[in-house]
Write a structure and sequence with these properties.
single chain; alpha+beta; Cytochrome-c3 Hydrogenase, chain B; 3-stranded antiparallel beta sheet; binds NI-FE active center
């Protein structure tokens, strides 16, 4: 008989996620993913000035605020009929690009690597690097002391197989510490055109309010170069090291097999074309994306509005006691199907389209180093590989965009807010497809709906009882010891869930 195992909370992710597993004969036979709180941003926004939207929605999350700000200003650009100048488009791309870089680095090192790296190996360190010596002394003191949470957030941890090579472990710990500095550097880079971060004040409909000066361009380039070095010399090699030591994770956590990309980083002013192209993959069949096919089911979600609405008609009516429902996350569907979103989806669609060409080049290079075929990408380890490759490509492309800025030229186009209007902004957050839909009446927000990456990935079952992408990915996962279900947490973390976003 299947045994029920709860992992609650899932640590080292953003927000509050609980996972219920049913395990039979050392395999997950069923999985339920639940977002455990309600936030109500879509309700808070109603009745407010539309220009508050890009500021308020950024508070949905401290990890991907730029994406929410971007989706909001894109929706308002459409509602106001404003075309942004070239510098405005490039500055938006550069702020969002910097936000991708910090998000991917923190996800791999601070959130996921500890599923694979043996942090206790630092106690065997014999070198003289002052940071590592400090870390060693601290882990030793914590593990020997009789404290409740020794060496938090590193220990306690699930028992299981970790990286065995002591040198690889020490190097990973060193890069873990360096990643904290790199993340700060990427934040400083975002603040050059964003004013500050998190929650950038400069994003507005019509462009950005920050001016472009020679000094800012040089500052951005100088920080970017350091980040590119870290990505090439640490992040990508560390992903290869982990993937080489745990190749079985190219077979685990495959998911629903459908992928959705809205597209991100506009290529030219006023056009729909984006650097990472939009597209939909259903069982390897590539289709073009149609925004009218996005709907949200709520049969198993703690809401009482109608189910299956498109976001332009969407409603958010919380129903805490709803019978049969188990999550505060709605269930977004595309043409009725669950869709995985995120770096893997973006890399797969770009790979299939051959656009931009560097995606195929970089993915093929990584796969050949790992001795894996492209099919292996659709997996737990494939998500880490796709994220690392994307991080490199975005950083390299930021170099291109910053070089296209024209100092002292306008970054912003003025606009009027109409009496009534509507619009939608489709972009890609680091974790995947993100859309905001706005309706304006009497120059106030009458309706505001967000459909968010982690709502796609961590959705509960839909109206047809079809589980969400992560729920499907968990099914089949081998669990050696049900008291230490580390294999399942590896699958979950590969999606980089952010429940703060998902429950918005
Ligand atoms: Ni809170 Fe977010 C990203 C968005 S995920 S991190 O990336 O939108 O749902
Ligand atoms: Mg929503």
């Amino acid at each position: 008989m299947a045994k029920k195992v709860m992992i609650d909370p899932i640590t080292r992710i953003e927000g509050h996620l609980s996972i219920r597993l049913e395990i039979d004969a050392n395999r997950v036979t069923d999985a339920y993913s639940a977002g455990e709180m309600f936030r109500g941003f879509e309700i808070i926004l109603c009745g407010r000035d539309p220009l508050d939207a890009q500021q308020i929605t950024q508070r949905i999350c401290g990890v991907c605020p730029v994406s929410h700000g971007t989706a909001s200003v894109l929706a308002q650009d459409m509602a106001y009929g404003v075309t942004i100048p070239k510098n405005g488009r490039l500055a938006r791309n550069l702020i969002l690009g910097a936000n991708y870089i910090q998000s991917h680095i923190i996800h791999f090192y601070q959130l996921s690597a500890l599923d694979f790296v043996d942090i206790e190996a630092i106690t065997q360190y014999q070198g003289s690097d002052p940071l590592l010596c400090d870390m060693k002394a601290w882990v030793q003191s914590q593990t020997s002391a009789n404290v409740v949470y020794p060496a938090a957030p590193f220990l306690p941890r699930y028992a299981g197989r970790y990286l065995e090579d002591p040198q690889a472990n020490v190097l990973a710990v060193k890069n873990y510490l360096q990643a904290l500095e790199m993340r700060a550097l990427a934040h400083q880079m975002a603040a050059i055109f964003g004013g500050k971060i998190p929650h950038v004040p400069t994003l507005v409909p019509g462009g950005v309010t920050e001016r472009v000066t020679v000094r800012q361009i040089i500052e951005y380039q100088s920080k970017l170069r350091k980040l590119q070095t870290f990505i090439n010399q640490c992040y990508l090699p560390d992903v290869v090291a982990v993937a080489s030591a745990f190749p079985e994770y190219f077979q685990i956590g495959k998911g629903c097999g459908h992928f959705l990309v809205y597209g991100v980083f506009p290529n030219s002013d006023g056009s729909q074309s984006t650097f990472f192209p939009s597209g939909v993959l259903t069982n390897t069949d590539l289709q073009s994306f149609d925004h009218r096919k996005v709907t949200e089911d709520i049969r198993y979600s703690l809401f009482s509005s109608a189910s299956g609405l498109t976001p332009s008609d969407g409603e958010t009516v919380p129903a805490p006691g709803k019978s049969g429902a188990y999550s505060w996350v709605k269930a977004p569907r595309y043409g009725g199907l669950p869709m995985e979103v995120g770096p893997l989806a973006r890399m797969l669609v770009a790979y299939r389209k051959g656009d931009p060409p560097q995606v195929k080049e970089e993915i093929d290079r990584l796969l050949s180093r790992l001795g894996q075929e492209p099919d292996a990408l659709v997996s737990t380890m494939g998500r880490h590989a796709a994220r690392a490759v994307e991080c490199k490509i975005v950083a390299d492309q930021c170099e291109q965009w910053v070089g296209e800025l024209v100092p002292d030229q306008p970054t912003f186009q003025d606009f009027e807010i109409p009496e009534s209007a509507g619009g939608y902004g489709l972009t890609e957050a680091p974790r995947g497809a993100l859309g905001h839909w706005i309706t304006i009446e009497n120059r106030k927000i009458a309706r505001y709906q967000c459909v968010v990456p982690t709502s796609w990935n961590c959705s509960p079952r839909d109206d047809r009882d079809v589980p969400g992408p992560m729920e499907q990915a968990l099914v089949g996962t081998p669990i050696q010891d049900e008291n230490n279900p580390i294999e399942a947490t590896r699958v979950v973390r590969s999606f980089d869930p952010c429940l703060a976003c998902a429950v918005h």
